[in-house]
Design a protein that fits this description.
Largest interface: A-B, 48 and 38 residues
Radius of gyration of chain A: 22 Å
Radius of gyration of chain B: 15 Å
Number of domains of chain A: 3
CATH architecture of the largest domain in chain A: 3-Layer(bba) Sandwich
Largest sheet of chain B: 2 strands, antiparallel
Domain 4Fe-4S ferredoxin-type (chain B): 2-30, 80-109
Strand order of the largest sheet of chain B: 1-8
InterPro entries (chain B): 4Fe4S_Fe-S-bd (IPR017896), 4Fe4S_Fe_S_CS (IPR017900), ET_IronSulfur_Cluster-Binding (IPR050954)
Number of helices of chain B: 5
Number of helices of chain A: 11
Structural class of chain A: alpha/beta
Helix content of chain B: 10-25%
CATH class of the largest domain in chain B: Alpha Beta
Protein name (chain B): 4Fe-4S dicluster domain-containing protein
Strand order of the largest sheet of chain A: 3-2-1-7-18
Keywords (chain B): 4Fe-4S, Electron transport, Iron, Iron-sulfur, Metal-binding, Repeat, Transport
Largest sheet of chain A: 5 strands, parallel
Number of strands of chain B: 8
CATH class of the largest domain in chain A: Alpha Beta
Structural class of chain B: alpha+beta
Oligomer: heterotrimer
GO molecular function (chain B): 4 iron, 4 sulfur cluster binding; metal ion binding
Shape of chain B: globular
Distance between the termini of chain B: 8 Å
Strand content of chain B: 15-25%
Shape of chain A: globular
CATH topology of the largest domain in chain A: FAD/NAD(P)-binding domain
Strand content of chain A: 25-35%
Helix content of chain A: 10-25%
C-alpha cells in the first residue's frame, strides 16, 4: 500500500501516526509546499515574541520521518490530483502514484478586496512560518503596526509583536474582539486586558481605502501605519480537490471515515468541514486537536482499520498576555454566567446537555466540561449544581468515578 | 502496565497525597524547606464533599486526548506514561481544554504540569501511593 | 471559669518552624483539637479536647507535633493524687458513674514481668527452630476419656469436638458495635489466614462474615443479642460469656446512638434502642443452670462444636472453674482483671478481679488436684502483651491465650482509653462511617497476620532455647519458670520456685 499525504502539519502527522498503528510497512510520501520540518503552526506568534524557537517549534522530533518510514518532499507543491490514474502531479512535472491519498492542505488567508490595498508596500498575512519570518523582517522598534482583524490570528499576532514595535492598532468590523469564540461580556473583559498592554482597538468599522501608510476608516477616522497585517480570516484550501472533482461545500466534504467523494482520497484538517455535534451543522472546525484526530482517523482508515470520526466540536484554548480563555461548543441555549473582576464563566445548556462554555481567567479542569459536551452527557445523570460551581468529578455517579478512577 | 488506581471507599480526605506530590516535585530534600509558607500546586488533587473524597491524577490514558491535541508536541506517551517536555510547552492550555478528568494544570513556571508517576523526579515511584496512609491510592498491574 | 475546672491532661506541642499548615492534623482529629487560623496563617490547638490518641502525631508529615502530659499539678500529695482529685471534681459536677475504656492503667503488680524463663545449657541441648521441626499447633477441647471398640473390635471414634489452632493464640471477644465493621473484617480475615479463631463478642455476627465461620467463635452473652440458629451453626465453637475481666459482675450498655443500621440488624434489636446486657444470665444461678445452657447449645449444634464458658478472674476462680469443668463445657476462658473493655465503670475496672497469672495458676492446680484437668482446655486473657507472656501463660498451665488489646494496637489503637466516646480516630472503636473507613481491612488484617506470625516465631525461639519442641511439652511445665522479687505466698500460688532455687 502506497500512501501519499499532501500537507505536513497536524492532520498529516496524525495521518502518519494513524497509518503506523496499523501498517508498519507501506511507504508514505509527504508532499509539502513549505520547506520546513513539520512545525506547529499556532506557535508562529510565540516565535515572534521569543517564547519559542525554530527547534522547539518542531511538531515532532527530527527523526520522525525516518522512524515512520516517510519520504518527504519539502518545498514541492502538488498541482493536480488524477483520481482515476491515482497520481499526484507536482510542480516539477513529476507524478507521484498512490493507493491512498490524504489531502491535508489546510487553509489560506482570506483578503477581501479593499481600495488602494495594492499600494501598501509593507503588508503581511499571518498564517505560516514564512509569513512570520517575513513580518519579523519588517518590524523595528519604531514600527506602527495596523492589524486588520481582531480574531484569533490577529490578536495572537498583536501579542507576538507587542513588545517589539512602537504601536499596534487592531481594527475589526465586528463590535467585539474574538467574535468566533467569545460573547460580548467576555470579549470586553479580554479587550480591557489587552488594552492594558498598550494595544489599541478600533472596533465596529473597517478600512474604506488605503494609501501606502494610511488607512481611512469607514467611521471617518484614520490610522497611520508602517506595517499592515491582514488577519481578516481564513478559507479552506480546497482547489486541488475541487479541480479533481471532489464535493466541496464550505470545505471539503468527507464521510464518517473522512473519505472525500473520490474513492481512496481522504481529507483532514482545516481544509475540511465536519459535523459539529453542538450546533448540529456542518462547519469548518479549523482547530489543531481536531485536525490531528481527523488525520489519525484518516490514517487508520487508509491502512484498513475502519474508524469513525465523530464527536467533533469547536473548541479553543488561547491566551493573551497571561490571560487564558478556554471555550468549546456553541452558545445557543440556556445560559449560566458567573463574572468577577478576574474571571468569567458561561455555561450553555440545551435539551438537558451541556452545549458550550466560555471560561476566562479561571480555566482549571475545563476539560471536564469539554468531555460533558463531547459525550453529550445527560445532565440529569450528574450533579449539575456541582458542575456549575466548578468542573469536578465528584459530580459524576459513583459508578462512573469507580470506572474512571478505580479501574472498576 | 502498572497504573494508579484510587479507591474512594478508603480515601480519608487527609490530603497527604497532595503534599507529598508537591514535595516530590519540589526538588528539595526536606519537606519543611520545600513546603513551609508555600501554597502548594500538586499534580494530584483531592475532591471531597459530604463524606466522599478521592484523589485525582493523570489516568495515563491509552488514547490520550491531551497528547493528541497538544499543539507543540510537548506532551508524549512513553511506555504508557504521558510526559511533558517543559522546554517545548508554551502554555497554551489546549491540554487543559481536552483532558476529560481535569488532570493537567498550570505549573508555577508558566507552562503546564501533570503527574508523571514520579518517574522524572527524585522519587522514582509515585509519592502519593507511597504515602497514602490507607491504601486508597495504589499503583498496580490489573 | 467553672469551679469544675480541670486543667487539660495533655499539651499539644507544635513546632511552628516545622509546621507547613497542611492541616492533616485538623482533618484527622475527630475531637476537633486542631484548627487553622486564616488570619495568623498558623495551626492552633485546643488541648482540652485532646485524648492523646496520637493520630495527628502519626499523620504529621513533618513531625511538627508531639503530645506531652501536662506538668501542671495540684499540690503534690501521695494520697490525694491528681487523678483522685480530678475524679472527685468530675463526679461532683455530673453526679454520674465514671466510665473508662481498655484495661486498667493502675499500678498493680504484673506477675508476667516477675517471672523468668529457663534455657538449656550443656546437659540438655537447645533446639534451633530454623533447623528442626517445632510444633506450635494446639487442639482445644476435652480429651477423650475412654477407648471403645465396636462388635468387630474396631475403634469407635469417641473424640469430642476440638478447635485446631496453628499457634496457641485466639482473638478474644469484641462485639460488632463496640468495634467497627472494618475491625471485625480485619480480625476475621487474619484468623482465617493464620489458622486461628476470632470471637464475635456479644453483638452477633454480621451477615458478611458468615463466610469466615470456620474461624469464628460465636458468643452467647446475657443479652443474647444476635443469637439464632444460623448464628450458632455458623461458628466453629460457641462461647457462653459469664463475665469479663475488666468489669466482673457488671453487665454491658451499648447506647442507642450506636445501635444503627447493620449493628441493629446484627444484634436483632430496633435501631436506637439501648443494648443492655444484664449483669447475670437470668437463667443461670448455679452450675446446674449453666450445665443446662451448655447442653442446650451442644444440642442445638449437634454436639459438633466445643462450648466455651468465659468468666472473669475473681477471688474464688478455682472453685468456679471446677464447677464449669463439671458442667460439660469443653473449654474454660478466664479473663484477668487487666483485660480491656469498650466501656466500663472506672471503679469496677480499677478495683475488681484478680491478675490472670494468679488465677490461671490456681485454676490449673485445682483441676489437676481434682483429676479433671483433661475435661477442659483453658484459655487465658487479660493483657497478654507479648510472646513471652504467652510462653509463661502456657507454662503456668494454659492451653492457649486470648489477645485483644495487642490485636487492636496492631490495628492502630494507641491506647488512649477513650473508646466509650465513640470517636476513635483510628477507625476501631467507632461506628461513625467517616472514622470507620480509616481502618482498611486490607492493611489491618495483614498487620494482625504479621503480629501473630512474629509471635509464633518468637514462641518457637523461646521454646527451642528451653529444649522443648512442642507446645504440648511446655503446657503446665512450671519448672521452666522462676519468680523474681516475689513473696513466698505469691510463689506458692503461682506454683513456681524463686530464681536461684
Amino acid at each position: 500500500m502506497r500512501y501519499v499525504i499532501i500537507g505536513n502539519s497536524a492532520a498529516a502527522i496524525g495521518c502518519v501516526e494513524g497509518i503506523r498503528q496499523v501498517d508498519q510497512e507501506g511507504p508514505i510520501t509527504i508532499i509539502s509546499r513549505e520547506k520546513y520540518h513539520t512545525y506547529s503552526r499556532p506557535l508562529i506568534s510565540y516565535l515572534l515574541a521569543g517564547k519559542t524557537d525554530g527547534e522547539r517549534m518542531k511538531y515532532r522530533a527530527d527523526d520522525f520521518y525516518e522512524k515512520n518510514g516517510c519520504e518527504v518532499m519539502l518545498g514541492r507543491t502538488a498541482v493536480a490530483i488524477d483520481s482515476l490514474a491515482k497520481t499526484v502531479l507536482l510542480d516539477n512535472g513529476e507524478r507521484v502514484p498512490f493507493d491512498r491519498l490524504l489531502c491535508a492542505t489546510g487553509s489560506k488567508p482570506f483578503v477581501p478586496a479593499m481600495e488602494g490595498l495594492e499600494s501598501v508596500p509593507v503588508k503581511h498575512t499571518f498564517l505560516s512560518l514564512d509569513d512570520a519570518k517575513a513580518l519579523d523582517q519588517d518590524l523595528t522598534e519604531e514600527s506602527r503596526v495596523m492589524i486588520l482583524g481582531a480574531g484569533l490570528i490577529g490578536l495572537k499576532c498583536a501579542e507576538g509583536i507587542a513588545k517589539k514595535v512602537k504601536s499596534v492598532t487592531v481594527v475589526d468590523l465586528a463590535e467585539q474582539i474574538l467574535p468566533s469564540i467569545l460573547d460580548t461580556a467576555a470579549a470586553a473583559m479580554v479587550q480591557k486586558h489587552i488594552e492594558r498592554q498598550g494595544i489599541r482597538f478600533i472596533l465596529g468599522t473597517s478600512a474604506k481605502c488605503f494609501t501606502p501608510s494610511r488607512a481611512e476608516l469607514k467611521n471617518g477616522s484614520a490610522v497611520d501605519f508602517d506595517v499592515l497585517v491582514l488577519a481578516v480570516g481564513v478559507r479552506p484550501e480546497v482547489e486541488l480537490l475541487k479541480n479533481a472533482g471532489a464535493d466541496i461545500e464550505r470545505g471539503v466534504q468527507v464521510d464518517s471515515h473522512c473519505m472525500t467523494s473520490l474513492p481512496d482520497i481522504y481529507a483532514a484538517g482545516d481544509c475540511t468541514q465536519s459535523y459539529d455535534i453542538t450546533s448540529g451543522t456542518e462547519r469548518v472546525l479549523a482547530l489543531l486537536p481536531n485536525a490531528y484526530r481527523q488525520g489519525e482517523v484518516c490514517g487508520l482508515n487508509m491502512a484498513g482499520l475502519e474508524t469513525s470520526y465523530d464527536k467533533a466540536i469547536p473548541m479553543n484554548a488561547i491566551g493573551f498576555f497571561g490571560l487564558h480563555m478556554l471555550t468549546a461548543g456553541s452558545y445557543v441555549g440556556e445560559e449560566y454566567v458567573v463574572q468577577s473582576d478576574s474571571a468569567y464563566k458561561k455555561l450553555v445548556t440545551r435539551q438537558g446537555v451541556l452545549k458550550g462554555y466560555i471560561l476566562v481567567g479561571d480555566v482549571a479542569r475545563a476539560g471536564i466540561y469539554t468531555a460533558l459536551i463531547r459525550d453529550e452527557t445527560p445532565l440529569d445523570t450528574i450533579d449539575y449544581e456541582l458542575i456549575k460551581e466548578k468542573p469536578q468529578l465528584i459530580a459524576f455517579s459513583k459508578g462512573k468515578r469507580d470506572r474512571v478512577l478505580g479501574g472498576a | 502496565m502498572k497504573r494508579i488506581y484510587v479507591n474512594e471507599k478508603w480515601c480519608l480526605g487527609c490530603h497527604l497525597c497532595e503534599y507529598y506530590c508537591a514535595f516530590a516535585n519540589s526538588g528539595e530534600k526536606d519537606m519543611v524547606k520545600a513546603l513551609k509558607g508555600v501554597q502548594i500546586n500538586p499534580r494530584i488533587q483531592v475532591e471531597e464533599k459530604d463524606g466522599i473524597s478521592f484523589a485525582v491524577s493523570c489516568r495515563h490514558c491509552e488514547e490520550p486526548l491531551c497528547v493528541k491535541g497538544c499543539i507543540t508536541g510537548a506532551l508524549h506517551l512513553v511506555d504508557g506514561v504521558i510526559e511533558i517536555d517543559k522546554e517545548k510547552c508554551v502554555g497554551c492550555y489546549t491540554c487543559i481544554l481536552t483532558c476529560p478528568y481535569g488532570c493537567v494544570m498550570p505549573s508555577d513556571e508558566g507552562v503546564i504540569q501533570k503527574c508523571e508517576l514520579c518517574l522524572n523526579n527524585a522519587g522514582g515511584k509515585p509519592a502519593c501511593v507511597e504515602h497514602c496512609p490507607n491504601k486508597a491510592i495504589v499503583f498496580e498491574e490489573r | 471559669m467553672s469551679i469544675d475546672f480541670i486543667y487539660p491532661e495533655y499539651e499539644v506541642v507544635r513546632n511552628q518552624s516545622r509546621c507547613i499548615a497542611c492541616r492533616v492534623c485538623e482533618r484527622q482529629c475527630a475531637n476537633e483539637v486542631h484548627w487553622y487560623d486564616e488570619d495568623a496563617g498558623v495551626m492552633m490547638a485546643d488541648e482540652s479536647k485532646c485524648v492523646n490518641c496520637h493520630r495527628c502525631v502519626a499523620f504529621c508529615p513533618t513531625r511538627a507535633l508531639k503530645i506531652v502530659k501536662s506538668d501542671d499539678t495540684y499540690k503534690v500529695n501521695s494520697n490525694w493524687t491528681g487523678d483522685v482529685i480530678s475524679d472527685v471534681i468530675r463526679q461532683a459536677g455530673t453526679g454520674g458513674v465514671l466510665l473508662s475504656s481498655m484495661g486498667t492503667p493502675k499500678n498493680y503488680p504484673v506477675y508476667f514481668d516477675k517471672i523468668l524463663l529457663n534455657a538449656s545449657q550443656v546437659t540438655n541441648p537447645p533446639i534451633d527452630p530454623l533447623r528442626e521441626p517445632m510444633e506450635t499447633k494446639v487442639y482445644l477441647g476435652k480429651r477423650p476419656t475412654e477407648i471403645r471398640r465396636d462388635e468387630n473390635g474396631d475403634l469407635v471414634n469417641t473424640m469430642p469436638p476440638h478447635l485446631e489452632l496453628s499457634v496457641p493464640i485466639l482473638f478474644s471477644a469484641m462485639s460488632y458495635g463496640s468495634i467497627s465493621y472494618n475491625a471485625h473484617e480485619s480480625l476475621a480475615r487474619a484468623a482465617q489466614e493464620l489458622g486461628i479463631y476470632y470471637n464475635t463478642g456479644e453483638g452477633g455476627l454480621h451477615e458478611d462474615f458468615y463466610k469466615y465461620g470456620a474461624n469464628t467463635i460465636v458468643q452467647v452473652a446475657s443479652g443474647r443479642f444476635g443469637v439464632h440458629k444460623d448464628y450458632l451453626e455458623a461458628g466453629a465453637a460457641v462461647e457462653i460469656k459469664m463475665g469479663q475481666g475488666a468489669k466482673p459482675g457488671i453487665g454491658g450498655h451499648l447506647p442507642g446512638a450506636k445501635i444503627v443500621g447493620d449493628v441493629s440488624r446484627t444484634r436483632m434489636i430496633p435501631e436506637g434502642s439501648d443494648a443492655i446486657s444484664p449483669a447475670p444470665h437470668h437463667d443461670i444461678y448455679s452450675i446446674e443452670d449453666l450445665r443446662q445452657l451448655v447442653y442446650s447449645l451442644k444440642e442445638a449444634t449437634e454436639y459438633k462444636k466445643p462450648v466455651i464458658v468465659k468468666i472473669a478472674a475473681v477471688h474464688n476462680v478455682a472453685a468456679i472453674a471446677s464447677g464449669i469443668a463439671r458442667s460439660g463445657a469443653d473449654i474454660i476462658a478466664i479473663d484477668g482483671f487487666r483485660g480491656g473493655t469498650g466501656a466500663a465503670p472506672s471503679r469496677i475496672r480499677d478495683n475488681v478481679g484478680i491478675p490472670i497469672e494468679l488465677a490461671l495458676a490456681s485454676v490449673d492446680e485445682r483441676l489437676r488436684q481434682e483429676g479433671i484437668r483433661d475435661e477442659v482446655s483453658i484459655i487465658v486473657g487479660g493483657s497478654i502483651r507479648s510472646s513471652a507472656d504467652i510462653v509463661k501463660a502456657i507454662a503456668l498451665g494454659a492451653d492457649a491465650v486470648y489477645i485483644a488489646t495487642s490485636a487492636l494496637v496492631a490495628l492502630g489503637c494507641h491506647l488512649c482509653r477513650s473508646c466509650n466516646q465513640g470517636k476513635c480516630n483510628w477507625g476501631i472503636a467507632t461506628q461513625r462511617p467517616e472514622l470507620v473507613k480509616r481502618l482498611n481491612p486490607e492493611i489491618g488484617y495483614k498487620r494482625l497476620v504479621n503480629l501473630v506470625t512474629a509471635w509464633g516465631h518468637e514462641i518457637k525461639e523461646i521454646m527451642g532455647g528451653m529444649g522443648i519442641n512442642s507446645i504440648e511439652a511446655l503446657k503446665g511445665n512450671r519448672l521452666m519458670l522462676r519468680g523474681i522479687g516475689l513473696t513466698e505466698k505469691e510463689l506458692e500460688v503461682l506454683g513456681i520456685k524463686h530464681a536461684g532455687e
